[in-house]
Amino acid sequence: MKTLRAGVLEVAYEEHGDPGAPPTVLLHGFPYDVHAFDEVWPLLPGARVIVPYLRGYGPTRFLSEATPRSGQQAALAKDLLTLLDALGIPKAVLAGFDWGGRAACIVAALFPERCAGLVTVNGYNVHDLAASGQPSSPENEYRYWYQWYFHGERGQKGLAQNRRELCRLLWRLWSPRWQFNEETFARTAASFDNPDFVEVVIHSYRARYRLAAGDPAYEELEQRLVEKPAIRVPTISLDGTADGVMVTSSSEGGRAHFTGPYQHRLVEGAGHNVPQERPAEFAAALRDCVKL
After folding, report:
1. Can you tell me the distance from the alpha carbon of 241 to that of 248, in angstroms, rounded to the nearest whole number?
2. Which of these, 149, 118, 144, 153, lies nearest to 259 by C-alpha position?
3. Tens digits of residue pLDDT in 249-258
């Protein structure tokens, strides 16, 4: 593991492969960490692979106590940009799921010159804050129970007191066919002990529904997302057919936002954590996206 200062963070990250090879950045989501890609990066020969712990996870730390512990989408995207800058990477293949997929999509949309290709799970993974107060279908709404839970103080206390038990439950619900063992879960669950984990997570799930103010430092970036900018870079979108939180139709609804070379692939039997459940398919998408 390595660390470096990037923006408001001391970012912890793993680096694999040839330092002089074309770079790929792999970004995890909630409630996961860098171990989601343990079986992906070995399948990417000829690449320099960077796998950072997101803000609030693992050894990544804020540099100042005064920095708001924001989990908003613009903060995640800015973290990715500043990491690329700190590493001296002008352009990289970006890939991720959940929170990490959101950061990758935003950078690909707003800063296409920094993105050589994109692999995203669940399609156009950018929040439409203007429509956040509009209900979805009952089928989708019940899947988001954990988000409504986090909107109240009871949920914040529940996450703080039961972070491992709650996150293990989400793993099971979101990936119902994935038979992970306790060792696999424990390896990742150590990242939830980060002192900022609860605050960042709670802010993420409140800010996306405008129940908490965003960090003013990212307001300009958030405003650029209001127009739902198109993604023009070569993209492969993946959906697990057994995803317990995001149904495939959600990705299909965002197809119009991809205006460049694009493929959509279904990953049979996979749940929400596609790279860890189906590393070969995820790695294949990474290799193929730059060929579109």
Report:
1. 7
2. 118
3. 666 668 899 9
Per-residue pLDDT tens over the stretch 154-174: 999 999 999 999 999 999 999
Measured CA to CA, the distance from residue 219 to residue 211 in angstroms comes to: 16
Using CB atoms within 10 Å of the CB of residue 94, give its burial: 0 to 12 exposed, 13 to 18 middle, 19+ buried: buried
Report the greatest alpha carbon distance in the chain.
49
pTM of the model: 0.97
Contact 124, 241 (CB under 8 A): no
The pLDDT of residue 74 is above 90: yes
φ and ψ at 44, to 5 degrees? -120, 60
- Residue 209 class from Cβ within 10 Å (0-12 exposed, 13-18 middle, 19+ buried)? middle
What number of other Cβ atoms are within 10 A of residue 136's Cβ? Answer: 12
> Of the candidates 99, 68, 74, which has an alpha carbon nearest to the alpha carbon of residue 221?
74
User: Is pLDDT at 97 greater than 70 in this prediction?
Assistant: yes
Instruction: Of 274, 226, 250, 218, give the one whose Cα is nearest residue 97.
Output: 274
AA identity, residue 96: G
Residues 218, 262: Cα–Cα separation, whole Å:
29
